[in-house]
Amino acid sequence: MVEANYAIACITQTWKLRLEQFPCNDIEIEKRPVQSITSVKYLDASAVLQTVTSTEYIVDLKHRPPRIVLAPGKSWPSVPNIRPDAVVIEFKAGYGDTASTVPANIRNFILIKIADFYEQRESYSQNKMQMVDFTEGLIASERLYNL
User: Fold this and answer.
1) Does 50 share its domain with 83?
2) What gap in Å lies between CA 3 and CA 11, rounded to an integer?
3) Is residue 147 part of a domain?
4) Of all residues in the chain, what percent carry a pLDDT higher than 70?
5) Range of the domain at 109
6) CA distances, 106 to each of 37, 80, 93 (Å)
7) What predicted TM-score, i.e. pTM, was given to this entire model?
8) pLDDT single digits (tens) 60-87
9) Quick one: 103 and 126 in the same domain?
10) E strand or H helix at 69, and its extent?
11) How many domains does the chain have?
12) C-alpha distance from residue 60 to each of 31, 124, 129 (Å)
């Protein structure tokens, strides 16, 4: 639930971002935190996956959201056939390989939610549940806001 609602990966995971074509500017990666970009590939005119060399782009992991930016003087390859998987970016995301690498605020948020669900485990209730205000504050810094 936390990973889905906040577009984060708690433990190291491999993801693929699929695009119809290369954007005119940066490629933003909503799933965070990105540890590394494994590959940037695209379908050529023969529908064969080709790999873009890493010298063609710069990976900006500090940006929020993380992004892939064209290197100065470079341009994305032409993608002749627009289709849902014409561009495939494989990347690793997550805070680390173990639960201890997940920031404490996220671990605490998860523990509080588990306790809430345990206490209110019926499929319906006559009691009105009220959220404890501080719990959202624990994870608010993880939310991406589109300005």
Assistant:
1) yes
2) 10
3) no
4) 86
5) 99-142
6) 24, 43, 15
7) 0.82
8) 999 989 999 999 999 999 998 888 999 9
9) yes
10) strand 67-70
11) 2
12) 14, 45, 41
